[in-house]
Amino acid sequence: MTTLNRRHFLRGIGTAVAIPTLEAALPTRAAAATAKGLATTATGAPLRTAFVYFPNGAILEHWNPNGDGKDYQMAKTMQPLEGLRDHFQVVSGLAHDNAEAGPDGAGDHARANATFLTGVRARKTSGSDIELGRSVDQVAASEISDLTRFGSLELSCDGVRKSGGCDSGYSCAYQYNISWRSATTPMTPESNPRLVFERLFGAGSKEERLANFRLRQKQQRSVLDFILEDANALNKQLGRTDKLKLDEYLTGVREIEKRIEKAERFKDLPDPGVPAPEPGVPDAYSQHIKLLYDLMALAFQTDSTRIATFMLAHDGSNRSFREIGVSEGHHNLSHHRRDQVKMDKIQKIDHFYVQHFADFIAKLRDTKDSDGNSLLHNSQIVYGSGHSDADRHDHDKLPVIVAGNAGGKITPGRHLDTGRTPMSNMYLGMLDNIGVKRDRFGDSTGILTTI
Fold first, then answer.
1. Could you read off the pLDDT of 201-246 as tens digits, one per residue?
2. How is the chain split into domains, by residue range?
């Protein structure tokens, strides 16, 4: 069986479809990571790391488990995860003290987003005068970016905001970005599924990519139509298992492409970083979320990147959820003052978000990696919010889930109560899992190695 280059692509004019992590590519991938002193699984498969943010905290009595360890009872909001309990753990007691109110006063929603992956206190400024800190995903990406096509992938269901004033005088950059390359530079997330798809599967100059995109639109053709020759040639080199995996993968790419085509309405491909025109995004929020989750799964499956962030919505988001019968704005409801009707509606929103996360990790569980384990087994994925009880603007006892095994380095299937621990301590442990060594991060006081 042929050993493939770890960056093998199926190519056509304006396209480059990365292949999934096949058995034939495993030796070169493992060697590349070993040469840098970075961690892989025991069998050499890559380790992936993702951070998913949901806004406005949670109704904690329906989130927090009853009991510790493996025998805990799952609360109402967590029920969509019941069939996956061996693949994730609930981590309680994590805190972000630097998100608490300080000399700058109000602005808890902006600080919740800003501090979530940085552990650094946001400084109240205006316009483009911002100062924060590098986020944990970018610390990881800086070490392993040359192993993959993209150093990291940043996604959001919100539009792009990098300047201007938002929450109580804090820059909008704090509230609309969770990934930060440096103290003054956020990593702009992409909200348009088409642009994410083109980033993953486009190649060549801007003109070549645009010409290919327009041709596909005009002739109603798939990106796969342009790589058939390469795909057929590769198929002849593969063993039976890899052939099946490649076929399933290409079928999945086409299915996602069809869903994007159904949702989009614009004719030209906008430049990256430009706010997505509304017609290019699915009308249903649930479909928008699912498309972006599925594209993140594709990026991991093809080893296009090993680091991703996904901000489902910014903290303070006042989106309504008519598709689940909640017409009021989320943020307005979150100031519930223990009004049971409002709390019940928030719980429905919490459940909605958890259901989509459950679908995502189930997809990773059902996708085989190059070493025979699942993508989920070879991942560590944080799902959480920068608030616990949004009515009180608390930034401790945060609602956090960690899914995956990190290739066997972490222990899912339980409720872990950390007491009161800086979330940055957990991030240090996650960095260590992928071979990125740091003594401190954000407001860390040590390393949490028990997840």
1. 888 788 888 888 888 888 888 999 988 888 888 888 888 888 888 8
2. 36-191+281-433
Q: Is 310 helix (H, G, I), strand (E, B) or coil?
A: strand
- CB under 8 Å to 371, separation ≥6 — which residues? 26, 41, 43, 44, 45, 378
Element (H, E) at 15: strand 15-18
CA distance 183 to 180: 7
Give the class (CATH, top level) of 36-191+281-433. Answer: alpha beta
The vertex-53 CA angle with 425 and 159, nearest 5°, equals 135
Using DSSP, state whether 380 is helix, strand or coil. Answer: strand
Give φ, ψ of 318 to 5 degrees: -110, 30
Of residues 21, 19, 25, the one with CA closest to residue 2: 25
Token representation of residue 242: 């890899």
User: What pLDDT, on the 0 to 100 scale, is given for residue 7?
Assistant: 52
Strands (E), 175-326: 180-182, 185-186, 307-311
Report the largest interatomic distance among the alpha carbons of the chain, rounded to a whole angstrom.
Answer: 65
Show the CA angle centred on residue 149, arms to residues 48 and 39, nearest 5°.
35
- The whole-angstrom separation of Cα 242 and Cα 203 is 24
Residue written as token pair 């992956």: 117
